[in-house]
Automatic annotation (TrEMBL):
NCBIfam families, alphabetized: oligo_HPY (TIGR01727)
Gene Ontology cellular component terms for the protein in this record: plasma membrane
Residue stretches making up the ABC transporter domain: 9-259
Keywords per UniProt: ATP-binding, Cell membrane, Membrane, Nucleotide-binding, Transport
Pfam families: ABC_tran, oligo_HPY
Descriptive protein name: Oligopeptide/dipeptide ABC transporter, ATP-binding, C-terminal domain protein
Matches recorded under InterPro entries: AAA+_ATPase (IPR003593), ABC_Ni/Peptide_Import (IPR050388), ABC_transporter-like_ATP-bd (IPR003439), ABC_transporter-like_CS (IPR017871), Oligopep_ABC_C (IPR013563), P-loop_NTPase (IPR027417)
This protein's record includes keyword Transport: yes
PROSITE patterns cross-referenced by the UniProt entry: ABC_TRANSPORTER_1, ABC_TRANSPORTER_2
Any Gene Ontology biological process: transmembrane transport
């Protein structure tokens, strides 16, 4: 990858596997991408596609029976995979942070918000409690929380779900990390709060140079938020490029199917377009391209696993990429 020197994060051939009674699950299989300073990447896929596991792998949050068995995770050129647990703990929450779908994975229910935020600052920065408290207050203001002084003295159960998620986001922003990974953090929020948080995240990346991975199944969020997008299917990235390239002229049949099945793409009163079949189990993937059993373009060649290769300034894992004339039908 040519961007290795300038990129905040480079992931090369990442492989994360889980050993289960039923067999080996390749949750993340040869995933590669890079993100530059201040860039926002959308990581898109259905449930079970491996997008969240990719995020957890980068954070070093994979536990038994899971294991990262291959690849590199380079933060500013240094591989996070080889770090001892204590060194990784110092990086986590400081140089890389994660915002989860459920804010209570971040918040301790029995501690006041100010206690939690001050501890998050002082764990990584040598500042006084008073300075840390002021930083916590500023972070709450940044995510649009009214009356921040009152809110700092409250407990998580005194907040609505949306307000709790804002606090979790504020905690992630506290140490101005180089990279933030967001795992569908606005799914449970109403549209107006979601819009405000997306705007705040974009602003943060522009102003501070933080790189952002936004994990979601919602293409409409990615369209308005991200610079680049990587589409995952059955543990692998099948297409990646700029948001404009991938969403306006998808080349992989799966990406094309995802976009074509969006309600806004379908005529009013007509049945929604659907991708035929079901997502295969990661325990029992078809040989070769995992999408071939659902793909109308599949051939005998697809029984061999396609490599991720450069096609028209994007990365694509497909033997039969679609052409503009096919994709214009869903514009």
């Amino acid at each position: 990858m040519s961007m290795q020197n300038t990129a905040t994060l480079v992931v090369n051939n990442l492989q994360t596997q889980f050993t289960t009674r039923a067999g080996l699950v390749k949750a993340v299989d040869q995933v590669s991408f890079s993100i530059n300073r201040g860039e926002i990447m959308g990581l898109v896929g259905e449930s079970g596609s491996g997008k969240s596991m990719t995020g957890y792998s980068i954070m070093g949050l994979i536990d038994t029976p899971g294991k990262i068995v291959g690849g590199e995770i380079l933060l500013h050129g240094s591989d996070l995979r080889g770090l001892p647990a204590e060194a990784m703990r110092k990086i986590r929450g400081n140089r890389i942070a994660m915002i989860f779908q459920d804010p209570m994975m971040t918040l301790n229910p029995v501690l006041r918000i100010d206690t939690q935020m001050v501890e998050a600052v002082r764990a990584h920065q040598d500042v006084s409690r008073m300075v840390a408290h002021e930083m916590a207050r500023e972070a709450l203001v940044r995510v649009g929380i009214p009356a921040p002084d009152e809110r700092l003295e409250a407990y998580p159960h005194q907040f609505s779900g949306g307000m709790r998620q804002r606090v979790a986001i504020a905690i992630a922003l506290l140490n101005k990390p180089d990279l933030i990974i967001c795992d569908e953090p606005t799914t449970a929020l109403d549209v107006t709060i979601q819009g405000q948080i997306l705007y705040e995240m974009q602003k943060l990346c522009r102003e501070s140079g933080t790189a952002l991975i936004w994990i979601t199944h919602d293409l409409s969020v990615v369209a308005g938020l991200a610079d680049t997008v990587s589409v995952m299917y059955a543990g692998r990235i099948v297409e990646s490029g700029t948001v404009q390239q991938v969403l306006e002229q998808p080349r992989h049949p799966y990406t094309h199917g995802l976009i074509a099945s969006a309600p806004s793409r379908n005529p009013r009163g007509q049945p929604l377009q659907q991708i035929p079949g079901m997502t295969p189990s990661l325990l029992n993937l078809p040989q070769g391209c995992a999408f071939r059993t659902r793909c109308t373009y599949a051939s005998a060649e697809c029984e061999h696993t396609p490599e991720l290769r450069a096609v028209e300034q994007r990365m694509l894992r497909c033997y039969h990429p679609l052409h503009a004339r096919v994709t214009e039908a869903v514009q």
